[in-house]
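Database export, one record per block. Field names are fixed; values are copied verbatim from the stored entry.
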Amino acid sequence: MLNKSELEYAKSVLGREPTQTELGMLDVLWSEHCSYKSSKRWFYLFKTEGEKVALGIGEGAGLVDIGDGYLIGVAMESHNHPSQIDPYNGAATGVGGIIRDVISQGCKAVGLMNCLRFGPPSKPRNAYLLENVVRGISEYGNSVGIPVVGGELEFDDSYDDNCLVNVVCVGWIKPEYIVRSKAKTTGHHLVLFGSTTGRDGIAGVSFASETFSDDEDENRGAVQIGDPLSKKVLIDTLQELVEEKLLEGLQDFGGGGMTSAAGELASAGGTGVEIDLDKVPLREADMEPWEIVISESQERMLGIVAPENLDRVILLLEKNDTPYGIIGKVTDDKHYTAKWNGEIKARLPIDLLVGGFPVPERVEGKITPQTESMSWFNEPEDYRSILLELIESINICDRSWVYSQYDQHVQSNTVVDLGENGGVLEFPNGRLLAFTSDCNSFWCLLDPQQGTANSACESLRNLISMGASPIFIADCLNFGNPERPESYCQFVESVRGLGRFSHDFNIPIVGGNVSLYNESSVDNQAKRINPTPQIMIAGIFERNFTPVRRNLCTPWANIFLIGETLPELNGSEFQRITIGQVKGIPPRYRPDEEKRGMNVILEAHKKGLIRSCNNVGRGGIAAALLKMALNSHYGFKLNLDYIPGTVSSVAQRLFSETSGRYLAEVTESNQPEFLTIVEKYGSTVCELGLTIADPIADFGRFSIPMKEVKDAYSRGLRKYME
């Protein structure tokens, strides 16, 4: 609910006591989830403009020009709190909501991604959450007919009480069909269509803007209930309305319900709205006015329709059996007026309702500096055992238990199967785009700024390794309570890190979301999630280029390591499985080194010199190499003594997570030209070893049959979920 200072401020502006309906409206639109009142003051740090950006941050979806008369639409959102309380419906409606964000600009939705965080699945509650979140995502996405093309999964104790469900939707549109989220013309009709309005989801955004209470049941009513079949009808109906250019403006009913949808349309258009709540199609007949105006029932859209188009809009809605109501009009008084049977229940100035909150003071605390100390480190006695433990660990192992439940090919535009470095979609103009998302929350916990920038680099390297050039970023920033200085400092430092990256690499951020208050109280002690800035990057391929996979392709090819290796084991997966925690200074952000490696790989790809390629990330060279061999028919033989850098032990060579590195499989005939490119960009390189015909991982000083590796890799997650 509104705090005391907010309530007093509202009274002073209105010159009276707010009505019950007005209190509900202000509560939802002044919530952290809708208002971004703690976060948007820092967005100036992001690079948000670029010559290809057609529509950036501020509307339902960002739009980016990919040439030949097509734009890509993208939106990224969180549904964390609802998924912790009701994992199936919370995750399903998260998918439904992100689809609406993209189609609200007129786009055809063609791809989904999901990025998930849970406590360790060895705990039954966490396994239950994972199982039902994945079921909610798969059943909704599969039913509505949009392929899931990528995602990420990470586990840590910090997510025990606050799982994270971040979802992405991408679509396409031609520029002439773009629908803006604006109500610009007085007298135009407000038409609600898509589904009926019920009590589910009431005050959902307020619930999402608070830390968890001990009683989960009291919040279940704030979780929306999805209906994918209704969504499919809504998508098809909306496509007809867009194609005939019958809508002057459009907004989805997401967080804040009708209050947000109509209020933001009016705010963007510099107008007002007048709504007759008794004309809203209801699912429950006894709903109160305040419930109707803030309900977050799913599968609903609000269209702005000119009088001359109203009959045609109604005809199409009735043809498709789509519930609708002509619920009001656009006015010129710059107020949000809500009536019930002719009686005014709410009349609020738009500029008070939308963004008119008193700006809260936030104190940026200090983060305890980490030390460089490696005193915890001991060289393993048995490398085979530690390597098998690493590949089986829950943050590296096989994720097919999750993605095998998703329909990847429902629209026949999916080019690369799930499990690669990124998802790839083909668009109507023949262009291929890759999508990938990453966040290493352990790095971000130890150093939020460098950890965030390095997480973005890892996402970038996934694209580069496939041969795609980056074109835009979307993000979902998940943090704890911003009213706590130490938590707010984590958020601000992370934003600085992402801002640095976006400017360093000249990649615009075109959409995103902030999810705060991801913490709970345990024995009167705050338990918050690791800082989790989820970063999705999209890349575009040259025409007629086939995306490069990471599976080894042929025996007796050279395996090259691009980039130097430093003894950066703090914050690594090796450290986590060795001592049960992460600590120390994590791998440093080194943009110049990243750019050198990026340029080498992209030019080598352009000339067709690389057979397979992988980014070196979590688990270091060891994990990256094993993943290249896992789904191939081949193995490899290495000489670890040749690795350049300052590493002094086998474990440092194998498990360091130094950024900026790639593994490339290059045949002997292509080796001279490849090394010329490396020299051209001044990158570091070494010939790490060779691919071999036998399925054996030979690290020189020890070897492991790939069958043992595959068994360990495949059981890491399944042993908890089956």
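Remark 1: The chain has a mean pLDDT of 93.
Remark 2: The domain at 373-405+548-722 is CATH 3.90.650.10 (Phosphoribosyl-aminoimidazole Synthetase; Chain A, domain 2).
End of record.
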